[in-house]
Amino acid sequence: MWLKDLNKKRVAFFTVLGIVLGFLIFAGARASLQEDHGTHYHANFALYINGQQDKFDNFTFYEEVQSCSAEAQNNPRHRVHMHQPENHVVHVHADGVTWGHFFANLGYGLTNKAVTTDDGVFADGDGKKLTFFLNRQPVTSIANKVIESGDSLLIDYGDGTGIDERYNQIPSDAHEYNTKPDPAACSGAETLTFSERLKRAFDFTN
Ligand SMILES: [Zn+2]
Ligand SMILES: [Zn+2]
Q: How far away, in angstroms, is 47 Cα from ligand 1 center?
C-alpha cells in the first residue's frame, strides 16, 4: 500500500517535471527563433526598360504599416519589400532572400534571361539585351542570388548603351538605411535583447 502511494507520487512528480521541462524547451526554442526577427538590412537597385526608369509609381509596390505587424512575420511579402517613398531601397527582413524573391513580391518576374514587368516580358532579341550590373560588375545570373547588405543592382533592358551612366545614378544609401528603423515601424536595425526575446517567446499571440 505504502509503496503503491510512493509510486503514484513519483509518477505525478515526473509527469509535472516532464511538462515543465517540455514547456521550457519549447519556449527556449522559440526564444532563439526570435532572432530571425532581427534580420534587417538594405540594398539599392534600379530597373530601366529602353532607357526609361521604372519608378514604381503605385502604392501597391510598397509595404504599409500593417504588414509590419507581428502576424505579418509569416507573410512572404514581409521578407523583402520597399517602403514609400524610396523606390531604390530594398528592405530585407529575413535570411536567404534573393533578388528573384524581391521581384516576385513586386508582382514582377525575374529570371536570368528575362524580366517581366507590368508592361510585358523583356528578353534578349531584336538587337535588345538584358544586362545585370551588380556592384559595378556585369553578372549573368542574378535571380537566385541572395541579396547582400549594401548591394547595388542595375537591371537594364535596351540596346546596351548608357549602362554605366544609369548605374552611377543609383543612390548608394543602403548602409545609411541600415542604421535607422523602417518608416513603417517594421523591425528596426537594433538587435533584440535577451529579455525582449524571452518576452516575445512567451507571447504566444505572435
Ligand atoms: Zn528597412
Ligand atoms: Zn520593412
A: 20
